[in-house]
Amino acid sequence: PYRIERGVVKGFIDYLFEHDGRVYVCDWKSDTLARWDDAHLAEHCARHYDVQARLYTLAALRLCGLEDPARFDARWGGVMFVFLRARRAGEPRSGVFF
After folding, report:
1. What is the pTM of this model?
2. pLDDT digit of tens for each residue in the chain (98 aa)?
3. 63 vs 73: CA distance, rounded Å
4. Are 58 and 32 in contact (CB under 8 A)?
5. Residues in contact with 15: Cβ distance below 8 Å, sequence separation at least 6, in sequence order
6. In the beta sheet, which residues pair with residue 38?
7. How far apart are CA 98 and CA 85, in angstroms?
8. Phi and psi of 76, rounded to 5°?
9. Cα–Cα dist 32/84, whole Å
10. What's the rounded Cα separation, in Å, for the pair 84 and 95?
11. Separation in Å, CA 83 to CA 52, 75, 86, 88, 95
C-alpha cells in the first residue's frame, strides 16, 4: 500500500517484453558492487531499486491493460534487474535479480 502524493517522476523502462504469455520489465544496471552473489544483489535491489520496481510495475500494468486482478494474475511476469558488470558467459542467471 502506497500513498500517492504530488510530484513527478521521470524514468525509462529499458526493456518491456512478453514471454509465454506473461509481461516482464527488464532494467539494465551498471552498478559496480563488491560482490555479485544472489543475497547481495537482493539486498542491493531492496535498498536502491524498490521504488523504481514498483513504479515501473504500475506503468507496465497500465500500458498493457493489466489493471484488474484477473488479468494481473494471468499475465504479469515481474521485474528483473540485470547487472551488466556481473554477467558471465555460459551462466544465464549471473547478475540477474528477479
Report:
1. 0.85
2. 667 677 777 889 999 999 999 999 999 999 999 999 999 999 999 999 999 999 999 999 999 999 899 999 999 999 999 999 999 899 888 999 99
3. 16
4. no
5. 25, 26, 27, 28
6. none
7. 16
8. -80, 130
9. 9
10. 7
11. 15, 25, 6, 11, 5
Non-local (6+) Cβ contacts of 39 within 8 A are none
Grid look-up 535498498 returns 47
| Grid cell 515481474 in the structure block, residue | 78
Q: What are the grid coordinates assigned to 3, written together? A: 500513498
Residues with active-site annotation: 27
SS3 content of the chain, % helix, strand, coil (to 5): 35, 25, 40
Q: How far apart are CA 81 and CA 38, in angstroms?
A: 12
